[in-house]
Structures are given as C-alpha cells and as structure tokens.
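**Backbone description:**
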Amino acid sequence: MKPAALFLIAIAAFAQTAAPKKSAPAQSAPSKSALDKATLEAYARYLELFQVDVQVKVDDPKPAKNFPGYSEVTVHFTYDGGAKDDVFYLSADGQTIVKGDVTNINASPFQSNLDTITLAGQPTFGPANAPITIVEFGDLECPSCKAEAPVLREDIPKFYPDKVRVVFKDFPLESIHPWARAAAITARCVLRQSQAAYWKFFDWDYENQEQLNGDNIHAKAVEWAGKNGVDPVALGRCLDTKATEPEVNKNIAEGRKLGVTGTPSLFINGRKVGGLPFPVMQQLIDVELKHLGK
C-alpha cells in the first residue's frame, strides 16, 4: 500500500476516536531553534548517532560568507583523543539547517580548506609562485609517509620543477607512533636554523626510521646536526625546552579542523586525498593544471 493511502487511513481512524466536542483547543508545542546551542548540539548528536560519551562544543554563529541570509556555526566533536569539526549553516529563524560545504562557482570548490590551511612558517620546497601547492599532513614515524616521501621529494621536483610547491605540516599519530611527536619537535627545531637543513633532516629521518625510537632520537639528531652544518648546541637547547612544541600543536589542531585522521593526508590546491603513488599523483596534478589553464 502506498504511503499516501496509509496516511489517509490513519487520519480516518483518528477522526473516529476524536476527543469530545467541548475539549480545550490543543496548543502547538513551541518550535525549536537551532540558534540555541543546546538544541543544535542535541540535533548533531542525533544526526551522528553517537553511542558513546562524545564531547560536543558549539561555537557562536557568524555570518556565512558564501551563503547570504544564513549563519555559520562550527561544531567540535572530541572523544578519546580523536576530534573532528563539522560546519552547519542556520537560517535566520533557526528552523533550517544545511550541513556541508557551500561554494561559489567562481571560486575553488575547496576554498574552505584553503582558507583553513596556513602556510607561513612551514617547511616548503618548490617555487613560491607555483600554480599548485601540495600540503602534506604527515608523521615522521609513519611508514606510509616514508613511502610517500620519494613521490614528493624526488618525482615532483623532477617532473614539475616550476609547477608545484610542497609544504609539510606535522600530524603525529601518537596513539600508534610513540616517538612521532618528539620527531616533529626535533624537525621544527632544525627548521629554525634553515629550510635546507630541515629537508636534510626530513630525508634522514625516513632513511633511518627503523633505527630511531623515543629514547635515542634527540641524541641521534644532535649527532646528525654536527655532521650536516647544523649548530648542535642550539639544537640541543631547542630540544631541551621543547621550544617548537606549540608549533606542532597548532598544526595538529589545524589538521583536525580539516578532518585529518590519518597520515599521509595531502591537500592538492585544497583537494583532500590520501597517500598516492606517483602515476595517480601525476593525473591529479595534470587535472589541476588543466583546470587552471596552465
């Protein structure tokens, strides 16, 4: 039986059992508004079907840049060390919710990612004015990142010397890689001395990944520094004070905001992908160059 017919039968059945004629008129329940944080949180919990004690934080609404008449609200979910952020768009009366990305046809469909990613102060190679920027959120203890490194460090400079810039951002997966955070702090201490030294350390880390651990990485890094033109005393001071840890934390927070949960996570002009073999990477780069008319 069709849903419409079932609906009509339900109405007829209700009419036969209606309340007495003199009963007080029914009062409609007050309408909910997603502009109320508690209401939006409850809605988000129901939408995601959370069955565990997920912590939810609802930001204050702000005008949506690409969605006139709507407010943009970011909702942060955290549980057991993991995190993700979702963006909701709310109508002025709070009755309509749109979940997802809103884009302008004249802008990149990945503009929200591009607006979130910060490049200042990050290790990078390739021309600054390259039409394509690949941002990797990676982990220096991650075997998959080690496998991706030759694609970024060797293939891309060889085939796209003036077309692609590569940027690395720290995203240590501490739950499975116990010395990844220490490696990220160490690498950024090297970065404080020079970009060239950073990439030497980056390559050395992956080449020696199986010999490194939480107990020896600092000592081995200082030893490496003395052989590679890096001031070992300055490096040691930076490591002792964990001076670069706030930079690592900032990258982690940014990655979570972008929905990064594993490594390597790559953003090709804002398009999020996982680790890729070079032939697939090449296809995506060529698609992007064609789109840009380059």
The two ends are 58 Å apart (CA to CA).
